[in-house]
## 1
Amino acid sequence: MPTEQEFEEFALARTPHLYRVAWLLCADAHRAEDLVQETLAKVYVRWMRTLGRPIDNPAAYAQTTLVRTFISARRRRSEHERPTDTLPEQGVDRGDLDLRLALAGALSALEPIDRAVLVLRFLDDASVADTAAQLGISQGAVRNRTMRALERLRTQFGTSLPDLLHS
Amino acid sequence: MNDNQPGVAELFRRATDDLGAPVDELVASGVTQGRALRRRRRAGTAVAALAVLGVIGTTAAVVPSLVDRGESPGDGVTTQPASPSLTPTEDPEPEDGEPRSGAPELTVPVEEIPATVASIVGREGLGETRIDALYPIVNHRYGKIVHFYWEGTLTSLLIEPVDVTDAKDCATYAVEGSECTTLADGRLTTSFLLTADQVTTRGVTVWSGNGYRVSVLSYNAPGGKDVAPTMPQPPLTKSELEAIASSDLWYA
């Protein structure tokens, strides 16, 4: 019988990583929090089912739920990206703040699914096949989107990327 | 490492290393939202029934308790509008409501329900299954709705999950003016005969005792409302409807 305590233990352990992914997808702290909450709620419902099999791999299930929730929400709302001119984080050093500002701006210029491709491949080190499976697209589409998104990211950052990384 | 883009991976990691996620608050909010979502999904199939019955004149009398739940009619509904096929739409991540613990899954394929009804009734009369935008099929693991013709008139069968006790569910579900009574085998039932919008409807609901309620409605017209009756009374009798609703074939 699934218990709420087990779910909370899982969620407490997994939320930091989900939040990192959500922040990169949303490029905005408040949206990232909303996305993580929605994801946890969906996983909770699945977790607490009294009938049927338990989730085979809760971490992977939560990750896929988060990415798909992000993409479907963007499709549903047809949202326009908002450039981020302020960041809510406090107490971080200036180098990291500049880095986040620059990255948030660059990611905001990408299509949501391209952002998801980059995050899965470069934050999670997911293979092309795994990325394709999580996003429900072909492996060829993952490769094409990776190339296109990287090119755009380079264009956005210009020559400032090495400086940011080493600041 | 993917491709030859260590800079991107490092960039992502550096940017998110010290984000300081409010983990406790996020988990608490996620659990709260999850509980609410779970409650909504439990009610989903019942609300689907309401959405279907919305085209039927006796709706308000049949399911008054559901009207007050304030749920979106779309929650948890799988429909096949305007499709000639009876092939169920499979949902890889079902969002249906669930019956109470210990209830079996509904194993009867939705497309076999009309023929099963005919076998229970044991006489001629079965016609085509009706599938259109007004009368969609619902095909969940824990809920089924199908409409078909019997002697040229509409018949609706609804199997819905119950996540409270049968007595409590019956008390809120029974049509105003009718009562919850007990069948010979001890199961709860309620019935009605109502005329609204020209159409007379006879309905019987039986609580299965294992986490479901089964409702069968027979009309004296080819549609649920605003169509001319083709016979004085619904063709399926109360005892036939009871036999259908109390059958164990839905869980076999």
Note: Residues 79-93 of chain A have pLDDT under 50 and may be disordered.
## 2
Amino acid sequence: MNHLQRRNILNDIMLTVTGVCTFLTVSVLFLILGFLVYNGWRSVDWSFFTRLPLSPGEAGGGMANAIVGSAVLILIAALIGIPVGFMGGVYLSEFGGRTVPMIVRYTADLLNGVPSIVIGIFAWTVIVVPTHHFSAWAGGFALSLMMIPIGLRATEQFLRAVPNSLREASLALGASKTRTVMSVVVPAAKQGILTGMILGIARVAGETAPLLFTSLNNQYWANTLSEPTASLPVMIYTHAISPYDDWHRQAWAAGLVLLVLVLIANVASRWVLSRGVSAQRG
Amino acid sequence: MGTAVVSAPPRSSERKATELWRSGDQITHLVTLIFAGSVFVVTVLLVYELWIHSGPSRAKFGFHFLTGTTWDPVSAQFGALPFVYGTVLTSFLALLISVPLGVGAAIFLSELAPPRLSNACTFLVELLAAVPSVIFGLLAIFTLVPILRQYVEPFLKDTLGFLPWFQGPAYGVGYLAAGLILAIMTFPFIISISREALLAVPREQREAALALGATKWESTWQVVVPFARLGIIGSIFLALARALGETMAVTMVIGNDTGIHSSLLAPGYTIAAIIANEFTEATGDVYLSALVELGLVLFGLTMVLNGAAQLLIIATTGKGSKQD
């Protein structure tokens, strides 16, 4: 009896401990949000979105150039990353044999695991070194490399989940394979693919390390895609490590805006996916 | 089942049309193959470029690069050991905290929590994984570091100061701060993957243990967790690879000191952090290529860990699905 009691007490203790672990880990997200809102919300005003950063000591100013710069970088990344991810995923799921897809899948996983700073070095060697200047192109290219594996694996995974009977029905009606894939298989998986693409964009939107020596930073507007371009994450970094209080406030505000955007994108992608699942069941 | 379709042999008038369809398919096949192949080409190119651009440094220092302890841009002497040390130490510290927390939470979410709560919590944890690393850095600089400097580090020195790991002035920034922030950044990976591995354990395993009179905890700890151990270890490897390659948050709190210190309270450096800090300021071929070589070392480290993690995760989830 004594032994049983001991086992039961241990049971209760350990189960409580795992509950505490869960509570601690989940509460971190709310702590982060809370700190950002507390420190940042006062600085998120109209001028934050419409004005350029000011030199330290001057109160006010904004991050308009960084917001536009981030949008431009993400657009370049999406224009490269989404087609490659999507078409590559179609190949892996629909056209590939055995060996080639295996190699591509393996290298995509490899690419996915490459530290973001190393991606930055790579983009620097292939774009910044030959063109001799930091540019939005280099930054966008670096971000696209981080987006491709996510889009590729998501496309493949959701295409594979499409039942074969759909393909066979289309082929039996005399449709070509291309037609079958584009009109039957891809539409059946579109929610999942869309989710993957949104997640890819959300992931690169907050990336800083690949931009440090590709798009660099800029206190002013970038007029072309071939010059250093400001971005929100790099602005947060440079403002946070600076010794000026005004800049710290701007960093908090930028952090809050960036986090809210990333979280919205993540929640939206889940919502798209859950709608897809319920539509298929219904 | 395969997608093979048996079609009647086409008559000669139809053959032309069929071939046209086929050639259309071949174009699609080719185009998609090019896109898929580009992923392979880019990855190979990445390794090639790192190798080429680290050439001057590899030629000058050889394998001594990995064991050298001086990092002196002025006299062009470069050794990677302080950074490898800092990277490994901070990642190890991170895992020391995030593994028990993460596995504990994964056990709660897979074994105890009702499905709705479990899904909600997992969703929140996955959102945490999506928080950009620069935001972790921002919070670490302005909240974690002051707390460490004012309360935690003086306390550690007072109570455990006789140990070599807790000596020296309390700066706030340093190995300990970096390890803590990495712990927070890695446990989402451990939780979500370990939870999957635990959920893949067949129900019969739990029922058998409970039927033999085991308590809930005994069935979990002695049956379910060992069954899912490969997946859990895989998640730890993956978290370790993340921690090694993590740049921004660590760069902001590591303290930027190129020495090797035994004290966790001392400022240090990691591979990713020194690349981030010095790359744009590096002058001279050897200096730049030494930084690229550091990138190559980091790449190698994370690749080995990622590969191992993938194998382990495939091994468990494959095993789990077969027995279902």
Note: Chain A touches chain B through 93 residues (CB under 8 Å).
## 3
Amino acid sequence: MRRLDRPRRHAARSREPGTLVADVGVRRGSFELAAALTVEPGRVTAVLGPNGAGKSTLLALVAGTLGVESGHVSVGGRVLTRGGAGAGRTGAAAPDGLEPAVQVPVARRAVGLLGQDPLVFPHLDVLENVAFGPRAAGMRAGPAHDEARGWIEAVGLGTLQRRRPDELSGGQRQRVALARALAARPDALLLDEPFAQLDVRTAAELRDVVREHVRATRVPTVLVTHDVVDVLALADHVVVLHDGIVVEQGDPVTVLTDPVHPFTAALADLNLLRVTLTTPTTPAAAGPTTRAGAPRLLRSPSLDLTLSGGGMAQWVEKASPGVTFSTHSELQLTFSPGDVRIVGSGATGSAGDEGGGAGGLVWSAVVVDVERGPRGLRVRTTDDVLVDVAAASAVALDLRPGTALTLRVDAADVRARSV
Amino acid sequence: MTPRGIDVRPTTSAPRLLWVPAALAVALLVLPVVALVVRADWSTLPADVTSTAARQALALSLGTSLVATACCLLLGVPLALLLARASGWGADVLRALVTLPLVLPPTVGGIALLYLLGRRGLVGRSLDAWFGVTIPFTTTAVVIAQVFVAMPFLVLGLEGALRTSGTRYETVAATLGAGRWTTLRRVTLPLAAPGLLAGTVLCFARALGEFGATALFAGNTPGVTQTMPLAIYAAFNGAGVTQGAAVALSLLLVVAAVAVLLVARAWRPGRMGSA
């Protein structure tokens, strides 16, 4: 009779997938995670973040290998985890009337997991691996094998049913793991960098397979990754996690083209500078004067950026409409390393031809180091501003660490936002 | 130009100097058996091996060792499973206690078993008084002595295998909806099968060779407690038989042991999970 109360007997699986909601808080030593996620059926939410940001902890909380101290995890309204009265070991007296703590065991959560390592059972062949979930749910061997064959076909391994894991390539093993996870008919799917160990082409193929089946099964999916390609190829929504909190989220293109957080900027291959506005002499009246009163952007501590060409007020207005900036307001600027130009180097000093028609930012910097870049060389300069230089023009410049440079980026290529 | 005459052995092979101690080790392990074969009186050997005493002792040895191995599996597998997943000082102490029979001389084990299960023993007293059950100097005592000395081989072998295979596959099984028993049956034990097999073979071999604890706790009654090692000892000491008989019985035991090892080697745990 025990099997009857299982949440997911295969016969009873006709219900529409539900929304995954996680709003969790947990403390482990000095690390604290407080994050919220909502993933609708058939959608993929990517969780981005540096190592130690709490991505794995977040997955463990949803998968149920770790309990929460506060908050809850639910799928389609079914509560899988709930902190609160009696939860955790904080010892804080729970107020009366709180709902009791819930921690559904991993085996009954119906949350599938696909990790970096496929962990295909080495003692079972492909068919038995994929049939594992249905068999564990009480299905007889025959129907379970039929079901497994369908999934093996679906991930493109139709001819390999009787192969053993050690006879498969890494990509094939990951496909088996995906088929196995889907065959268990999860209510939610967690992907923990599943493409990280695959070569570029295999990873691309597998991303297609994952996207196709997430859409087809409408299973809400959380994808943890470092890789922008994963995000752009798969995600409907991005959550950036840093030091245990969500620092930004949104649709992938917006987040990656207009990042708020330095980590996201680095991932999106953009420079991110925080600057403070100053107007050295004249009052901050509308029309900026042409000479000494030219408004400047000052970035503390080590860069001095000058806005040339156009008026700063208009530029700021254009970059971030509806926001008026006063002196000393803080701005965050993002721009691509490819849009930065070296307008002077070495002894030639400051820019002579800065007064072109379009507005732009000009500043002096020093070469920190030089490495290979997407267009030739990538030069790291003061305050980690990256500059891409074509290999041919790099020869003319004396790009050694310590070389003084004058850099310019067109105002049109800079995104500004208030902080 | 292809360089010729260059030695292309893989550079990862072991240093040649290791051959000397390795050869000595093989000599030390194999030469005694060779000596046994040389010393054997081949004219009387068939008769010695097929004598009633020999056949009784062999049957008793094989029978008790099999039962003892079964007991070790029944009790030792759960112990190994729990030990492999336990941590903390309590588990360390338990692990040390499990290893104890390995480091104790078997004779000490025999004495200890007598004080536990003997007629006046800690538990034996009650067994005798309440149920009229006496254990020492019975075939049951032989099995208990064998279990005592052989269990650590099974537990330690299996525990090592379980620790090596880790818990990651078990977590995957759980995310696929497998409960604890299903995971144990279809993932944990099959993954540890090589270790379990090796442990079982060692356990059986140790039970087959058990002498000291059996001699003290079970005695030396032909047909009841006289296993092969005891029969060999008795024959060698000239208790009515010749040393030739002892040699013949020893060879029989060697053949039996080698047969068990070969059978275990030949059987590789294969597709166990596809029940």
Note: Chain A touches chain B at residues 6, 8, 63, 65, 105-113, 117, 119, 121-125, 128, 132-133, 135-137, 180-181, 184, 186 (CB under 8 Å).
## 4
Amino acid sequence: MLSDNAAVISVRNLIIAFGSNAVLRGVDFDLKPGENLVVLGKSGSGKSVLIKIIVGLLRPDAGTVQVLGQDVLTLTARELDAIRLKIGFSFQNSALYDSMTVRENLEFPLVRHIRNLSRAEIDRTVEEALDDVGLKQAINQMPSELSGGQRKRIGIARTLMLKPAIMLYDEPTAGLDPITCTEINALINDVQERFKAAAIVITHDLTCAKTVGNRVAMLFDGRFQRIGPFEEVFAADDELVKQFYDYNFTT
Amino acid sequence: MDTNTTNPPGPVTTRRLDRIGLNLYDIAQFVGRFFAEVFLPPYEGREILRQCYEIGVRSLPLISLTGFITGIVFTNQSRPSLAEFGATSWLPSLIAVAFVRALAPLLTALIAAGRVGSNIGAELGSMRVTEQIDAMEVSATNPFKFLVISRILATTLMIPTLMVYTVFIGLLGAFINVNQNEATSFSAFMNEVFGAITFLDVFSSLIKSFVFGFTIGAVGCFKGYHAEKGTEGVGKAATAGVVTSMFMVFIEELLALQIVNAIR
């Protein structure tokens, strides 16, 4: 087993409440290098809040969050930005900049953070990234002209432009048809294999969890109730886990 | 007779006052952050230029039309009053003073508040609710610098520029009307115009326009940047961007009038 020092993300006793609503009540886990950890839970259980804390978009009430050995809660803005460059965050609604074309969306992190890149190098990198997600033909389209699945893939491509060490996926298959879900799951596995990036995948889709997760964590009542390989977690005789399984696979 | 104003403030009044107070505090913090970050690198030169184009150049057709028509209409409406005293030769001076001192800055600011303020409020509001601002932040780009500072700088620079343009286009409209009715030549018209306006008129209008531009940009950005979740929030941000900035422009105009009168 990997020690805490080797973990790319290490979260301890994470607590956050919004008003009187205690969302996370003491989350603990380590993300090992190169693994995909799937976080499952009901809507509103705090899954997205968890990854937003990890990337510094939200501040918890208590607890510690170590990313690549640094406590993100004590970093200066500049240090936090340096950590963020190593994290790719794929948003639930893709969050593509809708005033920019696909090309400009993909160029955005590149031209801002890598200096002295020639026009040819930028074009080549953008085309490669689009090729990776199978959407080279969409290079000059606006985000509004793309389907939900295409937007998701472009969103993932944009996060990969800076070759992140960690990927955070927020509901990557939400609102997509089964075929596109399969494509997105394959893309997540492909990213893990090619970039050797560790990832946290937030979902309530068990097919996605089973396909992409090396480990699965069940977030319930503000805590990880179960964590381990998919088969192990869902073998447990637990009413909550059974409900989740039954909903996804027997209905 | 008892009126509500004589009653001690009840819970609803207190809540409203609290909300206004908090809102003012938030706006002050927002403006404070603008001044704290505006001189620090990185400088978003390309984005500022893009915004100057969007705000300045794209407003030209509307500004041209309204400025020109206002020039014609104002001249036409002023003529009968001056004609009663046989003073229609004062029309160029009257129009020049009216345009430079009040009409052009106000007209430009109100049109910009309607077109630019709502646009900024809706654009940033939409970016907020669709997590584009968060996406920018997690990609290590300061969204406040990229989106807010660039827009506020662009409105602050472009509104005075548009104001100067409005003066000329309004005077052009006025000249056409005066030329048709009084057969005044262009050089005679311009002589009258430049004889009537002073350095203080031009200087105070420019300063006023800088303040109007800053206000329109800051209010639009503030409302959009802090839009609440959902499409309703985007609509509210756009409306609030227009209404609040127009209200602020009138208050500032009133204050500027008092200051300039005291100097004059």
Note: The radius of gyration of chain A is 18 Å.
